[in-house]
């Protein structure tokens, strides 16, 4: 695996373009970025081999899928129970993501449910996982800022050039 310690503006522009349209082809990306197809292919391969570009996934509108309730379960764990709890959470189909955290909780799980009653049932199921000591739940009302990468990548590369392709886009 190649280790990449930094990216330049062209890498950032490529990642942003891919985050907006993961199905974009090399020719389309090259035209959009104003560089040669080979440049896009080489950058894409380097980002993929380094692990920075970890794959592609479809964005699914959970509400339209019939899952209008998104919540965050903050869990406090017994000492040494992290692996057992994360394994247990990973077996629950409504759990979308699990993060270990600092602060008053040890783990935060993002979940999606069809109803508040289903969420309550899920919480009860989570509480049966060995090692979960206490839970606090926050329900998301709206998501005014969706998950995004563009602004962060632009900030990280604001003082970078666009590599050998020239700095045509300022």
Order of secondary-structure elements: HHHEHEEHEH
* Mean pLDDT over the residues: 91
Biggest sheet strand order reads 2-3-1-4
Secondary structure: number of strands? 4
Please write the CATH class name of the largest domain.
Alpha Beta
Proportion in helices: 25-40%
Q: How far is it from the N-terminal to the C-terminal residue, by CA?
A: 32 Å
Shape: elongated
CATH homologous superfamily heading of the largest domain = Lrp/AsnC effector binding domain/regulation of amino acid metabolism (RAM) domain
Uncertain stretches: 165-170
Helical/strand content category = alpha+beta
Reported for the largest beta sheet, the result is: 4 strands, antiparallel
Radius of gyration from the alpha-carbon trace, in angstroms: 20 Å
Number of domains: 2
Q: State the CATH topology of the largest domain.
A: Alpha-Beta Plaits
Beta-strand residue fraction = 15-25%
Q: Can you tell me the CATH architecture of the largest domain?
A: 2-Layer Sandwich
- Please work out how many helical segments DSSP would assign: 6
Keywords: DNA-binding, Transcription, Transcription regulation
Protein name: AsnC family transcriptional regulator
GO molecular function: sequence-specific DNA binding
InterPro entries: AsnC-type_HTH_dom, Dimeric_a/b-barrel, Tscrpt_reg_AsnC-like, Tscrpt_reg_AsnC/Lrp_C, WH-like_DNA-bd_sf, WH_DNA-bd_sf
Task: Walk me through what this model shows.
By secondary structure, the protein is an alpha+beta fold. It has two domains: 9-58, Winged helix-like DNA-binding domain superfamily/Winged helix DNA-binding domain (Arc Repressor Mutant, subunit A), CATH 1.10.10.10; 69-140, Alpha-Beta Plaits (2-Layer Sandwich). Helix content is 36%, strand content 18%. Helix 1 runs antiparallel to helix 6 (150-156) and helix 2 (26-33) crosses helix 3 (37-50). The longest helix is centred in the N-terminal third of the chain and has 14 residues, at 37-50. The two termini are 32 Å apart.
